[in-house]
Amino acid sequence: xxxxxxxxxxxxxxxxxxxxxxxxxxxxxxxxxxxxxxxxxxxxxxxxxxxxxxxxxxxxxxxxxxxxxxxxxxxxxxxxxxxxxxxxxxxxxxxxxxxxxxxxxxxxxxxxxxxxxxxxxxxxxxxxxxxxxxxxxxxxxxxxxxxxxxxxxxxxxxxxxxxxxxxxxxxxxxxxxxxxxxxxxxxxxxxxxxxxxxxxxxxxxxxxxxxxxxxxxxxxxxxxxxxxxxxxxxxxxxxxxxxxxxxxxxxxxxxxxxxxxxxxxxxxxxxxxxxxxxxxxxxxxxxxxxxxxxxxxxxxxxxxxxxxxxxxxxxxxxxxxxxxxxxxxxxxxxxxxxxxxxxxxxxxxxxxxxxxxxxxxxxxxxxxxxxxxxxxxxxxxxxxxxxxxxxxxxxxxxxxxxxxxxxxxxxxxxxxxxxxxxxxxxxxxxxxxxxxxxxxxxxxxxxxxxxxxxxxxxxxxxxxxxxxxxxxxxxxxxxxxxxxxxxxxxxxxxx
Length: 495
What we know:
Number of strands: 10
Distance between the termini: 20 Å
Radius of gyration: 22 Å
Strand order of the largest sheet: 2-5-4-3
Largest sheet: 4 strands, antiparallel
Structural class: alpha+beta
Order of helices and strands: HHEHEHEHEHEEEEHHEHHHHEHH
């Protein structure tokens, strides 16, 4: 059975969709209904045998043309000269020259041509300062006459001609964020393009994010180990010490796990804010209790991820303070006296539904599938144990988000149709972006097999998982909820 079939069955049983509906919509879900992807093989050479084997093992979940994928051969990164194509960023923060990086992270230099580091869809874009400011994060100081950070701006995106060449390379995904690449901008300007700003962006794709508008919030890193689990829980096997891992791969692993740790830490706050918003809309105790339990799960996830980050980096790091955010709905009590026609209440229901969908239904569902696929090649016992827990927990969290959507459609009364229409539009826009991202897949990552042994998916695998999650999990589930009477909740399917 395909992993998406299994996950969807568990998800639908948990949220109470009738088995007849599961069978009906599942019958329409096969590989033939997924559009084939194109793989960019221009100027590429034969992939290393390990990477080829890694891709061949994924045939059950990826298109057949994956077997023909070729990966770019890149020079070994052995130099510490930042001007060299083979530059390896320092592994310790104290060793990074002042001003060299716009943000800290071993093997995370966005200004050199190496493998994508985010574990989410990512890319680069250069444009005029005027165009960059359309996506600027407010109140963040500019650098070099350019916004320091950019994020997706739905109102701006909807008014753009996305096919215009000036936007080539930029993601319009609702979960995009990016940072200014100062060195690339300097280089482009020195070459004669004086009116330009260059950015490295990625699309958030891991678990439930903490959003402030369209901006994703995470804490800053600081020295400390209070958030790391007992090192014994994430230790390497005695017969396979981490010292045997290629240094550049080990640096990538360290940064991937610390990124996940910060996101899991922020997810705690996201669930706590969700509790306040649900209470403002008179949610039942069954939902509130599950949201609180989910926040507790994220504490454990964050501690294990920080523990793994410390294991691979040798650095003790923990999250600093995380800014508090106000609930995004005013609530039924606040609107009771001055909303006679229910327009503002309807807007609150729609806002709650969209936020729940983007943060929970999308984020948690994709995170579950990615973790499930990361399990397949993982050979590290401690990481495999963590991935098993994440698949279980994030699967329940995804089900909780979908249960919340069900409750909103029932509790919103006369606003239910407007809620479903808004969800449909949001889902289709995001699904289209996920599909477009797979129309031109990157070559196989030369380090894919090495990363896979330690529970990490390369960018190409992440893109395919996102596409599959949309076509085989998220869109079918939303359609089923819209078409089915879900007043009776099903049994727990994740225990």
